[in-house]
């Protein structure tokens, strides 16, 4: 895995927030015969097979009681549940439903929503914060694969005092996020320090 990923940071985290770079086997999005190519994940970042994702030692950085919040594109829901279990978590429920406002082309219906799943290892970690956080997030879709900041903010409200890590973070993630609450790791957030350190390495653009 060293050839695919930077080393995982040391420590035990209570909350893991992940946006895996799902493998589409080179498939590109399109709007139908004769339409222009609307791009695909492989055009924007390196994608990773499910087997390689499973081999990443996520259990090694998780506390005994830990939650995993994982983004899953709709074609990869089965793989996402499989991956969560492979990382040592039990399937719990859908944590967030993101209404992207804008639609994407699809083979069946036009895609507008994406799910953030939640898995549990041990018990729900404590201390807990807000218990009235809403599931539905309405935020206009931005750059490819960019997730709404509102989801991280809601997780912070739910668990303000716990140790949190974002896996597969990308440069540019997190404006408006409480920097001290997150460690970021991924293809572009290559240091294992909180976001403030990542910003410094990126010249303030992160």
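-> sequence recovered:
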């Amino acid at each position: 895995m060293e050839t695919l990923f930077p080393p995982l940071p040391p420590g035990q985290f209570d909350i893991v927030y992940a946006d895996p770079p799902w493998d589409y086997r080179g498939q590109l999005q399109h709007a139908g015969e004769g339409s222009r190519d609307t791009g695909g994940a492989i055009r924007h970042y390196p994608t990773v097979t499910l087997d390689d994702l499973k081999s990443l030692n996520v259990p090694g950085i998780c506390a005994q009681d830990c939650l995993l919040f994982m983004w899953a594109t709709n074609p990869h829901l089965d793989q996402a549940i499989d991956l969560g279990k492979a990382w040592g978590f039990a399937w719990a429920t859908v944590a967030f439903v993101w209404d992207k406002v804008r639609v994407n082309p699809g083979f069946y219906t036009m895609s507008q929503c994406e799910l953030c799943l939640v898995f549990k290892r041990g018990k729900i970690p404590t201390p807990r914060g807000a218990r009235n956080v809403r599931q539905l997030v309405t935020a206009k879709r931005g750059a490819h694969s960019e997730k709404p900041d509102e989801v991280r903010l809601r997780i912070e409200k739910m668990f303000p005092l716990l140790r949190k890590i974002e896996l597969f973070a990308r440069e540019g993630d997190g404006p408006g996020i409480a920097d001290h609450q997150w460690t970021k790791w991924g293809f572009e957030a290559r240091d294992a320090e909180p976001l403030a350190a990542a910003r410094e390495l990126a010249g303030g653009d992160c």
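Residues 13-201 form a domain with the Rossmann fold fold (CATH 3.40.50.150).
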